[in-house]
Amino acid sequence: MAYEALATAYDRLTNDIPYGEILEFYRQIWTAYGLSPTLAVDLACGTGSMALLLAKEGLSVLGVDQSEDMLTLAAEKAMELDNPPYFIHQRMEKLRLPAPVDLVVCCLDGVNYVTDPAALREAFAHVYKALNPGGLFIFDINSEGKLRGLDGQLLLDEDDEVFCLWRAAFDETTRICSYGMDIFQKQGKLWSRDREEHLEYAYRVEELQAWLSEAGFLHVRAYGDRKLDAPSPDEQRIFFAAQRL
After folding, report:
1. CATH code for the structural domain at 146-200
2. pLDDT attached to residue 21
């Protein structure tokens, strides 16, 4: 399963992700929708970096992820907070909350990891039910153009403790980009080696907008990467916002 071997190295390999800038963009979006959220869900929360930032803003936060390894790390990171998020183990398409919330966010192409379109439509329906009236769903995807452009690419992430080699391939028939990952982690004087495969589905803007509307959402909008403008034809990351009324 994805994010088992990678979980312990994830934060080190992604320390360049601008979580603060993403949160600021979320704030611009919810302000444009006239929302002042107090209860939030970080869907596909991973190691909890965004959940922690939302909690530091004073929101009550629930982090949801299908990887128990990632959730364990998230809970450890949250221990020192005065207002720690609460973390639960659930798949996106089976989302069930104890009470509705004002805001659901899904950061860093978590939606692409749902590789069955029928399951994603089910997830959208569950997110809709999880929101209070007026609540907002914000997420982003790796664009179809970005995933297609990764075909045949060899990528490298490393620091002093971790070496990760990614091999990407895009299948035009299935619209799935696969990442074969070799992960080497230093353990004392030796290195351990693990392998994972990650799959992302290349969703298109118009189909996501249609499925959000099908789930009941209104005011469905697509944005470029951290800008309140429509995505350009060559956009690498596309943000979406949709509101429950």
Report:
1. 2.20.25.110
2. 97
